[in-house]
Every structure is written in C-alpha cells, then in structure tokens.
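Deliverable D5.2: sample structural annotation.
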Amino acid sequence: MSMKERIGIDLNRRIGLAPGLDWAIRNGLRFVDICLDPDPDLLDPAHRKLKEARAKLEANGLTLGVHTLSSMNVAENCPFLSEAADKYLEAYVRSAKAIGAGWVIVHGGYHFTADKQERMEIAIARIQRLAKIAESEGMTILLENMNPEPAGAEVKYLVHDVEEAKYYFSNLTSPAIRWAFTSNHAHMLPYGVRGFIEQMEAFGMGVERIGEVRLADNWGTVEEHLYPGTANMDFAELFRMLESRGYRGHYMQDYTTIDEMLSGRDIVARIADDVVGKIPA
C-alpha cells in the first residue's frame, strides 16, 4: 500500500455518514474516521443505516473508524451522568461492531485541577469496563493523547502528556486497548513529538501499540488544527521517526474542511514518500 493510500481523513462531524462515505469512495480514500453523534440512529446497533454503511464499506475496500466526542467527559462522576457516560461509550463500541469499523477512538476525560487524581481513577475504571465489552465484540479501542491547556485554565484534558499517558496505560492492560497518537498535540509539549514517542517507546508503548497517527499542522503554542505547511510541524521528521521504527499503520488527517484535507493529503503524501524512500531497508 502506498503512503498516500495510508493517509486518511477524519470526517468527524463535518458531513453525515452516508454522504461522507460516498465522498470518501469517490475520492479514492482507504481510511476514514467519523463521529456518530450527529445522527442518534447510528448509536442503535440494530439500525438499518449501519447495515447499509457496512455494505458500502465492504463493497469499496474502505476502512472506517469511529471517533467519540472529546467533550463527553470519560472522567464523569455525577449521578445519572456517570451512567449515561457508560451507555454512550458502550453504544459506540456496539455500533462500531455493527458497522464493521476497525476501531473506536476514546479520550481520557478532563479534570478541574483540584480533582485530577480522582478523575483519572474514574476514567480508568470506565475504560476498563468498556474494554471488556470491546473484547467481547472483537473491537479495538484507541485512547488518544490530548492537547495541553493553558497553565491557568481550571479545566484540563487528561492524557495530555507522557506522565498521564503512562499512568493510564499502566492500569489499562486489556489487549483491546491501543493508542491514537495525535502528533499536533504532542508538538505543543516541551519535549515535542520526538520526546513523546521516545518516552512512550521506553515505557513499552512504542509504534507496535499505535493504532492510528493523527496529523495536522500546529505552531506548538495553542490548540490549532492547521493546513499542512501553514505552521511549523516537521512532518518529514515525524514520518522518519515512525517509519524507521517500523510503523506501518494508517495516518489520519484532522483539520479545517474535508476538501482541504483532500488537497493537503497530496502535500503530506509527497513528504512521506520522500522520507520513506531514504530509510534503509
């Protein structure tokens, strides 16, 4: 498979499932992510829309991943809402199985500064429960590293740095759990993309445990998902570091619009081809 074929597009909530799959097929994509939230029917694993989408995927060689909302707090501890969080994630896994998706991207939740440890424990327990369901369904869960928030922010994402990622993965041992590496989030940290990968590799969570690498340009200062070449993300170094370590999975773009991601895919693929061509066999 060529590097360009390995680079997909996260449709997210930019377009509905049926028209989104048609668009992806028309444009020759092999990998696509999408958020199911805009259409509640899609969170019913028995709904005909999932069967129709599955048939379309199988007929066209398209691999789909589903992406939960990061605004849904996986570290939720309120009565009623806590139960709803469990049901939301379970619905995603069961719908993913029904549609024939390859993975479900989830997040570590967020905390309010003073309750960080408590929230991490809640999130880990919730993901552990979800992992049991994923195992029974033969599904893969990808835990995404999130972006750092400003130091003075009260609300902060969890799994935003290596320390938090290690804490989660040291407690999440299910074979159904891998990770989604969002490079532009790591780019915002002092040790950057290379430091993140090297430290996770030393921890035992190297490229063999990565299920998806997510791409967007970024200045490394605030949370932005920008078009390739409009900021200072070193895509060449990213591809060199991952491919030389044996990563052979897919990449997923997530920035601006689906049409810009389609044109940006050509830019990123050219960079990747140039880098991979120079890596010793």
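Annotation notes: The chain has one domain: 3-276. Residues 3-276 form a domain with the TIM Barrel fold (CATH 3.20.20.150).
The annotation will be released with the project's public dataset once the embargo ends.
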